[in-house]
Design a protein that fits this description.
- The chain has 242 residues and is mostly helical.
- It has helices spanning 2-8, 15-35, 42-49, 53-59, 63-82, 93-105, 109-112, 115-123, 131-154, 164-185, 189-203.
- The protein is elongated, with a radius of gyration of 20 Å.
């Protein structure tokens, strides 16, 4: 796919060129999110990013190459956040609770939704040949959870009867569905309930001494024997909403 090659092969850019390309991508992602793929045109993007038509065509000669680059840009933000050390590579139930708590505590989650999920919802309605790239982004996201669950098995924290791939899909699906329902309801409750239910299910595979009682990921719980206290942090301004 020619456009995919254009998006994947890095050009030899100066620092200024990289900054210009990044600025175009950031504004393109915002326009596509708010207006949709078809309603976003070159004139809107040129004005928003403060670039000329020749600059835009230099970095992104086709709409397909632009959309592919936006997918990669959004995916990289989401994947980088999920690969951060704060979740200890998702090798424990507590790391899953921490991940859920971050999004639930972020007051704008139900307003913004998932940036990558929203982009996917737009793109799958078009005839642009970018579905493989989008599918790959979600597979990488799924694999972060799957790899963590496999580590839990190796560490003896969850049973070998658990299927890491299926559980990874469950966590990702709970997040995507919960985000969408939270946006519709303008209430964080659907996301909280979906993530709690998914983590509850993972909990059923817990092995002693890792097994403990699943607490509410959104509220401080009284300390009890065998249950560590939960801490919750809001998303910083540098963290993507998913």
């Amino acid at each position: 796919m020619e456009a995919a090659t254009e998006a994947r092969v890095p050009q030899k850019l100066t620092d200024k060129g990289r900054a210009t390309r990044a600025r175009i991508l950031e504004h393109a992602a915002e326009l596509i999110y708010t207006k949709g793929v078809h309603a976003t045109n070159n004139e809107q993007l040129r004005r928003a990013a403060g670039v000329s038509g020749s600059q835009l065509n230099h970095y992104f000669p086709t709409k397909e190459s632009l959309v592919l680059a936006v997918i990669e840009w959004q995916a990289e933000r989401v994947l980088t956040f999920h690969r951060s050390e704060r979740f200890t590579h998702f090798d424990s139930l507590d790391s899953l609770r921490e991940w859920a708590g971050v999004y639930i505590a972020y007051e704008r989650s139900y307003q913004e939704g998932c940036s990558l999920g929203s982009l996917a919802g737009e793109i799958i309605k078009t005839d642009l040949d970018v579905h493989a790239e989008l599918a790959n982004a979600f597979e990488q996201w799924r694999d972060i959870f799957r790899d963590g669950l496999e580590r839990m098995q190796r560490l003896g924290r969850i049973s070998t009867e658990a299927d890491p791939t299926r559980l990874a899909y469950l966590l990702l699906s709970a997040f995507q569905g919960g985000m969408l329902l939270a946006q519709v309801a303008r209430d964080i409750a659907p996301l909280k309930d979906a993530l709690r239910a998914a983590i509850d299910h993972v909990q059923t595979f817990a092995m002693p001494p890792a097994a403990d009682v699943l607490g509410d990921v959104t509220e401080a719980q009284p300390e009890q024997p065998g249950r560590p206290p939960h801490t919750h942090q809001s998303l910083s301004s540098t963290v993507t909403s998913g």
